[in-house]
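Appendix B. Raw example, untouched.
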Amino acid sequence: MVPVPYFTIISNNNLILYLLTVSVPYVTIISNNNLIFTDSLNTDVSCKSGVSYPPATITWSINGGNNLGNGTTSKNSDGTTTSILQYTADKSDDNKILQCTATNGYGPNKTDSITLNIRCKYRFF
């Protein structure tokens, strides 16, 4: 568990504790930049945010609109957040933008994206 960031001030023999907030510094879709999706098949896509407090919430979307939800999210012991989206490819999504967005309510949202490359399920020779 990552310790909560804080600082203390002692004033007139009173201890004052201030909790700090840390905005999300970055978010990255974890891929080899060559993800190829096959129509109608599931593919796991991962997104990881940098250390923040409170921990980030990650959401997924296509072209900034069609909300795909949060995926399966884990708050990691190093203070990062990881989300795994099980994306079912649809040929109508070819060349659209898959985005993951991280926010924790402090500072700007951080977004990373990839262009979807959807291949047909069957090949004809």
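End of appendix B.
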